[in-house]
Amino acid sequence: MPGTTYPAAFEGIPPFPDDVETVPLLVIDYELVKNGDENEINRLWEAATTLGFWYLKNHGADETMLSSMFAMGSEVMNLPTEEKMKYDQGNNGISHGYKQPGNVNTDATGKNQDSAEFINISKDDALAYPGPLPKLKMGYPAPAETAMEAAIKPFIRQSVEVNDTVLEVFNRKLGLKEGTLARKHNAYSGSEARCIRTPPAPADVSPDKVALLAHTDFGSLSFLHNRLGGLQVLPPGHTKWLYVRPMPGHAICNVGDSLAIFSGGVLQSNIHRVVPPPGDQRAHERWSLVFFTRPNDDERLRPLVDDQLPGSTLIQEGLAKKPGLTQTEETAGEWLARRTKMQRTANIKSAKDFLASRGTEHTQVA
Ligand SMILES: O=C(O)CCC(=O)C(=O)O
Ligand SMILES: [Fe+2]
C-alpha cells in the first residue's frame, strides 16, 4: 500500500491558480478581537452575518502545532483498513471515530459517494485522556492516542480558546445576557477535531466531482486549516460555487447551524463542499484539519429570544426574515446524530432519506 504524505506547511505544493473564481473573505486579526478592538470586532460581525465565513490570522495555532496534527492524521490514515475500521463511526449517528471514504452519499440520487476519509477526535475525550473517556469509550487508533498529549490536546485547547472568544463577541453583539452562549458550550458535546485526507484526483475527473458533500456545518463554529484548494462556498443568492483560496497562517472560520438557529438566522451558516483542488494541485493528496465547536449535547436548538437583554430585538428581527429556522425540536446532540446518520450510504434507501440529513441550507431564504 503506498504511504500517504502530508504537506509540511505550504512548501512543495503547486500554487493555487489565479484563473479560478474565489470568494473574497474578510481577514480578521484574532489578537485584535481578543483585545477588544471595536473596529475589528465590527468586521468579524460583518463577516459572520453576511457570508458566515472569514479568514483568521494571529490565531495561535502555529505551524508546529498544525504539522503535528497532520503527522498524526497521516499515521492514522496509513494504518491498514481493518485496523482503522475498528474505530468506524458506524451507521447510527456517532460522529467521533474513523470515517471510511465512500460511505457518505454526496447527493440525493444515490449514485455518488464521497472520497473523503477522516478521523474525528472528541474534545471531551481528548481533554479527559488517558481516561476514562466519556465519548468514544473504546479509544482511538494508536497514532492518535500516542499524539494525544503532545499534539491533540494543545490543538484542541487553542481551538477552544479561539472559538470561545468569538462566541463571547457574538453573545454581546446579539444582545444576549452575559454568558448565555458560554453556558451553552460548557458541558459534554459533539465538539471534535477532524483530520481529513482526500486522494489525488485522476486527470479525467470533473472539477465538480464532489469529494466532501455540500453541507452546512452542524455545530456553532468551525476553525479550519488547509493547504490545498478544493473548498468551495455557494454565497447566498448565487448559483455558482466559488473556491476559498488557502493562505499560509490564515485559518478559515465559519458559522454552523446551531449558531444560525440560536441567533434567529442573524448569524449565517453557509453551505460549502470540497471538490478536487484546482489546477496543478489536483494531482496531490489533500489534507485538512478542523476543530468544530458544538453546543452541549442536551441544548435545545431554538432561537434565543428569551435570553436577550431588555430592549434587544435583533433575534426576533432575524427570525422575521428566516422563519424556517425555527422548525426543529431537536437538541444539538440529536441534530448532530441525525445529520451524521442520514447522510450514510447504508441508511439511504430513497432521496427522502438523504434529505433527512440536511440542515439549515434547505430552510434559509437565499
Ligand atoms: O476540508 C475542507 O477544506 C473543509 C472541510 C469541511 O467543510 C468539514 O469537514 O466540515
Ligand atoms: Fe464543513
Automatic annotation (TrEMBL):
GO molecular function: metal ion binding; oxidoreductase activity
Annotated Pfam families: 2OG-FeII_Oxy, DIOX_N
Keywords, ordered alphabetically: Iron, Metal-binding, Oxidoreductase
Domain (Fe2OG dioxygenase): residue spans on this chain: 189-295
Keyword field contains Iron: yes
PROSITE patterns: FE2OG_OXY
InterPro entries on file: DIOX_N (IPR026992), IPNS-like_FE2OG_OXY (IPR044861), IPNS-like_sf (IPR027443), Iron_ascorbate_oxido_reductase (IPR050231), Oxoglu/Fe-dep_dioxygenase_dom (IPR005123)
Gene3D superfamilies (UniProt xref): B-lactam Antibiotic, Isopenicillin N Synthase, Chain
Superkingdom, taxonomy of origin: Eukaryota
Family to which this protein belongs: Belongs to the iron/ascorbate-dependent oxidoreductase family.
Name the record gives this protein: Clavaminate synthase-like protein
Lineage of source species: Eukaryota, Fungi, Dikarya, Basidiomycota, Agaricomycotina
